[in-house]
Amino acid sequence: MPDSSKSKVILITGCSSGIGFAAANLLAESGHLVYATARRNESVAKLDEWSKAFSGRAVADQLDVTDASSIDQVVSRIESERGQIDCVVNNAGYGQAGPVEEVSIDAWREQFETNVFGVAAINQCVLPMMRKQRSGRVINISSVVAHLSLPMMGPYCASKHAVDAMSLALRIELAPFGIDVILIEPGPIETEFRSNVDQNLETQTDENSPYKKLGDAMNSYWNRSFGKTAAKPIAVARAIKKAVESKHPKTRYRITAPAKFAPHLVSHLPDRLLDRIIHWQLKLK
Ligand SMILES: NC(=O)c1ccc[n+]([C@@H]2O[C@H](COP(=O)([O-])OP(=O)(O)OC[C@H]3O[C@@H](n4cnc5c(N)ncnc54)[C@H](OP(=O)(O)O)[C@@H]3O)[C@@H](O)[C@H]2O)c1
Predict the structure, then answer these.
(1) Do 266 and 148 form a contact (C-beta atoms < 8 A)?
(2) Across the strands, what pairs with 227?
(3) Which of 23, 77, 80, 103 is the most buried (most CB within 10 A)?
(4) Where are the domains positioned within the chain?
(5) What is the pLDDT of residue 284?
(6) What's the mean pLDDT when you consider all of the chain?
């Protein structure tokens, strides 16, 4: 039987699949009160079905991180139903692929609207409540690419660098209020993420692009390596659970071997050597 005295009220974004759903499921199973949100109505309907197994400890709701009114509605609902919010898991996000030169500025903006401004907007909405409580945890899902940028993934890597930078500033700003900020930095994880990247890469680069060869090299590198190093979403969910429950959480949880060693490579190797290693990995001449 879960210990209700330790149960936290948790808001999670992007629960239609992958890491968000795995985290919602694990946290609800562990006895927490989980508001599992998704942006599309059909996803909310599926989450609603799933939530029935948890007799009120899991709640499904609609939330698009780019829509201020949907954020406001969900946060107000939690405030009126629970009177507190202990943790927010900023998970919603996607990977905009394509060469920096060719990705349309609209696609760049959309990437930042979701992955960066979406996180800022959610935090701005929940933080007044957390400051009043003088407690809370903000758990931001970043990525290994917050440290190591990959070619043909510039917009996504830039967005995750921004999430990391925002989180570090926020952690210092919020410490006096008893609120902690924790980064989750996964490497490759088997979710819908990869196929969504492939889809938007196709729409961003045409056959005659000068970056076509690089795009193909990146694709075959991912096909060769993603499966070898990828973990299941439950591995990330377990790290999120630690960030929620641990008395003294780490500031960062890195999941998979690439996520653990990439930041060390970046801080110890000269930039030009790193570029050469990436060229070699992509089998580029
Ligand atoms: N998989 C990886 O290799 C990997 C590695 C490092 C970090 N991450 C990060 O992990 C997080 C979760 O991704 P995932 O791997 O679990 O991929 P996923 O299965 O594609 O899940 C992404 C979730 O984000 C949601 N989302 C996208 N835009 C949204 C918006 N505007 N408002 C609300 N929800 C939105 C998606 O909803 P829809 O179903 O409606 O699209 C989906 O629920 C992302 O932040 C991603 O950058 C993933």
Answers:
(1) yes
(2) none
(3) 23
(4) 4-281
(5) 83
(6) 95
Q: Which two tokens stand for residue 151?
A: 């070619």
Which residues partner with 181 through β-bridges?
138
Does 229 or 125 have the greater pLDDT score? 125
Q: Over 60: is that where the pLDDT of 152 sits?
A: yes
Condensed to tens digits (0 to 9), the pLDDT of residues 22-41 reads: 999 999 999 999 999 999 99
Per-residue pLDDT at 217 exceeds 50: yes
Q: Which residues pair with 254 in a beta bridge?
A: 185
- 4-281: CATH topology: Rossmann fold (3.40.50)
Residues at CB less than 6 angstroms from ligand 1 = 13-14, 16-20, 38-40, 43, 64-66, 91-94, 114, 118, 141, 143, 186, 188-189, 191-193, 196
CA neighbor of 219 nearest in space, from 198, 248, 245: 198
* Catalytic residue set: 156
